[in-house]
Every structure is written in structure tokens, then in C-alpha cells.
From TrEMBL:
InterPro entries: AcetylDAP_deacetylase (IPR023905), Amidohydrolase (IPR017439), Bact_exopeptidase_dim_dom (IPR036264), Peptidase_M20 (IPR002933), Peptidase_M20_dimer (IPR011650). Keywords: Amino-acid biosynthesis, Diaminopimelate biosynthesis, Hydrolase, Lysine biosynthesis, Manganese, Metal-binding. Catalyzes the conversion of N-acetyl-diaminopimelate to diaminopimelate and acetate. One of its GO terms (molecular function) is metal ion binding. This is N-acetyldiaminopimelate deacetylase. CDD domains: M20_Acy1_YkuR-like. It comes from the Bacteria. It is an enzyme of class 3 (hydrolase). GO terms for biological process: diaminopimelate biosynthetic process; lysine biosynthetic process via diaminopimelate.
Length: 371
């Protein structure tokens, strides 16, 4: 598939972002596309809203896995593009429209000219949450066609088109979603002493959370606690009976994640006493760190160095990716693909340069053929 077709496919997918495990239209679009390819070497199987496609290799001594995530985010798009999302409040703001298109581009080439090895494409739902990688690993299809190695990419708005970046070892953090509910006693705004104000408790809790990062985590280690959403109260002159915080925790090791969670729980116990309220904590989905296999990264660097594209050494990032669960079971790697966008990941104006998709297709295909 060449650039013009990649752009057409990407723009179609960009218009129909859907949240995790609701990717019905996306799945239909992908299946319709895949079914019009030469079918001789293909085995196609759906898994929930995702899809597996195996391309039989010419020799088939090994099986290579390639993963693309397919869900969008709950965000209103503000790019002003002609092909912007037609789903109100939903946007492909993390590049999964490009991830899918690149996978389709490689699949298109392999369907008419297979690689030596078998290749299994995993179109995976729900990366942004609640997490599709861990359950997808349990699918019978993967038990029958278990990859010997697996890889995938993520767009990088800050990198130039024509460059890619990765590193051996830890690439992305351990993550956990965080939901905290406060229950106190509402009342008249004029009589705070007769109520238990959950706006004060909740907002104070947000600032105290940062003390865990500053004072409980080893300064030579790292952690992030971000509260992205806060809800409380009903109107300006009623003291709020309830508050809710929604956020995410990021750490460099699974052990630090346990430590941070335990510190948050201790903080909540203290707040329950000092604010005379009830606090409940839920963690939602947790993602295991993305840990790249050293040999796999070296081999990919060799692929890139043999091409006209540029390899840059990456630093660790506090982003999360449920692809970490796949890398825990199957050696492989993830890499960043430069797409040059002023607006970053998870921003409503994200606008990747589409020509980067051809770089992705060329490198992924070259790497599969070279393994
Ligand atoms: C690459 C990327 O941006 N991934 C997301 C993964 C989200 C995990 C989960 N929903 C959470 O917020 O903890 C990220 O936010 O890093």
C-alpha cells in the first residue's frame, strides 16, 4: 500500500474513533479491508472487538507477532481537519488510527508476497482502558499460533518524520488508574461547622498526593501521580457531600507501584479521621511496564541502520502501554515512530504528519523480512 492509499485508509479510521471494547465500526472497517486482500496465505479470526490475522510464511520456521491498538479516547477533537472525528466526544488522539493503518499497509504487502516466517497481526482493542492486551493473550488463536517474538510501534509527535527511537530494557512505566470517592455531610454554605465539606477534603487530598511523590518515593527512583478529573458538589451555595477524583499512577517498577498505592491508602485513612468522612479507593486497570528485549532492539537498530531512516536512542517515558503484558510473555520490543505534531499525545489538536506512515510500513516490513 502506498502513501495515497495509506492516507485514505487512515482518514476513514480517524473519523470513527471508539472507546475500548466498543470498536464495532472500527472492527468492521478493518475486516472489510482485510477481506479484499489476496486470501491464500491468510487466516482471519475475530476476538471480541479485535482481530487476529495470520499470514503464512514461505518457510514458516518462526512466527513473528505484530500488534496495533485500535481504540480512541474520550476527547473532543479540535483539529479543524476536513476528516475530523464524526463521533462527538471521541478522538484518535493517541495515534491508533496511524497504528492500524501501518499494520494494514504491512499486511497488504505480505498478503501478496509473504515473508519467510509466519506473521500474526494483532489488532488489539482497549489499550487506553480497560486493557485489551492481557485478555487477548489468553485467546485460543494465540495458543495455536504463539509468536516467538513480537513488536509494535507508537507515534511520537516530538520526533521528526524519518526517525524512530527505542532502547533496550525499560521503555514505558507501570501504570494504574486511580479512582477516589469521598463521602461527607452536605449543608448550607453559611454553616460549614455543621457539614463535612468534600470539596475541601478532595482538593486538599490532591495536593497531599504530591507529597507522596516528593517525600515517600526514593529521589533516585521516579513516580507520577496525576489527577486528571475532579468532581464535587451541586451548586455554589451548598456544601458538597461528595467528591470524586480520577487519575493515574506511574512508576518505574512494580514494587514502587505497590509502595505508592500503600502510601495513598495510608493518606486516605488519615484524611478519613481529620475530615470526618468516608473514602473509598479503586484502581481500575493496571498495566505492566514495557520492557524491551536487548537482542530484539539491536536487531531492529540493524534494520533501521540499513535503511535511509534514522535511529535515535530513546529515554524511558512515564507513558503506559498494555503491550507490556505481551512483552512479559513474548520477547520483543516497542519503538517510537516520529510523526512531528506541535500538539502532543492525548491533546485535542494532535495532527501527525501522514507521510510518517510510509516510514512505519517500510521499516516494519523490512524488519519482518530480515528476521
Ligand atoms: C501511550 C499512552 O498514552 N498510553 C496511555 C495508557 C493509559 C493507561 C490507563 N488508562 C491509565 O491512565 O493508567 C497513557 O496514559 O500512558
Amino acid at each position: 500500500m502506498e502513501l495515497e492509499k495509506l492516507i485514505e485508509v487512515r482518514r476513514n479510521l480517524h473519523q470513527i474513533p471508539e472507546l475500548g471494547f466498543q470498536e464495532e465500526k472500527t472492527q468492521t472497517f478493518l475486516l472489510d479491508y482485510i477481506k479484499q486482500l489476496p486470501q491464500e496465505a491468510l487466516t482471519i479470526e475475530t476476538w471480541r472487538t479485535g482481530i487476529f490475522v495470520k499470514v503464512d510464511g514461505k518457510r514458516g520456521e518462526k512466527t513473528i507477532g505484530y500488534r496495533a491498538d485500535i481504540d480512541g479516547l474520550p476527547l473532543n477533537e479540535e483539529t479543524g481537519l476536513d476528516f475530523r472525528s464524526v463521533h462527538q466526544g471521541r478522538m484518535h488522539a493517541c495515534g491508533h488510527d496511524l497504528h492500524m493503518t501501518i499494520a494494514l499497509g504491512v499486511l497488504t504487502r505480505l498478503a501478496s508476497d509473504p515473508a519467510d516466517h509466519h506473521v500474526v497481526f494483532l489488532f488489539q482493542p482497549a489499550e487506553e482502558g480497560p486493557g485489551g492486551a492481557e485478555p487477548m493473550l489468553q485467546a485460543d488463536f494465540l495458543k495455536q499460533h504463539k509468536p516467538d517474538t513480537i513488536f509494535g510501534l507508537h507515534i511520537a509527535p516530538e520526533l521528526p518524520v524519518g526517525s524512530v527511537s527505542t532502547k533496550p530494557g525499560l521503555l514505558f512505566a507501570n501504570t494504574s488508574e486511580l479512582f477516589i470517592d469521598f463521602k461527607g455531610v452536605g449543608g448550607h454554605a453559611a454553616f460549614p461547622h455543621m457539614a463535612k465539606d468534600m470539596v475541601v477534603a478532595g482538593s486538599s487530598f490532591v495536593t497531599h498526593l504530591q507529597q507522596i511523590v516528593a517525600r515517600r518515593v526514593d529521589p533516585l527512583d521516579s513516580a507520577v501521580i496525576t489527577i486528571g478529573k475532579m468532581e464535587a458538589g451541586t451548586v455554589q451555595n451548598i456544601i458538597a457531600q461528595e467528591a470524586r477524583l480520577e487519575g493515574t499512577i506511574r512508576t518505574l517498577t512494580p514494587e514502587s507501584m505497590d509502595q505508592v498505592k500503600s502510601d495513598i491508602e495510608k493518606l486516605a485513612k488519615g484524611f478519613e479521621i481529620s475530615n470526618d468522612c468516608h473514602i473509598s479507593i479503586h484502581y481500575g486497570s493496571n498495566y505492566y511496564q514495557v520492557f524491551n528485549d536487548t537482542e530484539a532492539v539491536q536487531s531492529f537498530k540493524h534494520t533501521v541502520d540499513s535503511s535511509s531512516y534514522e535511529f535515535k536512542d530513546a529515554s524511558m517515558a512515564m507513558t503506559g502501554e498494555d503491550f507490556g503484558y505481551m512483552l512479559k510473555e513474548i520477547p520483543g520490543f516497542m519503538f517510537w515512530l516520529g510523526v512531528e505534531s506541535e500538539a502532543g499525545l492525548h491533546q485535542s489538536a494532535l495532527n501527525p504528519k501522514e507521510e510518517a506512515m510510509l516510514v512505519g510500513v517500510n521499516l516494519v516490513e523490512a524488519h519482518m523480512r530480515g528476521l
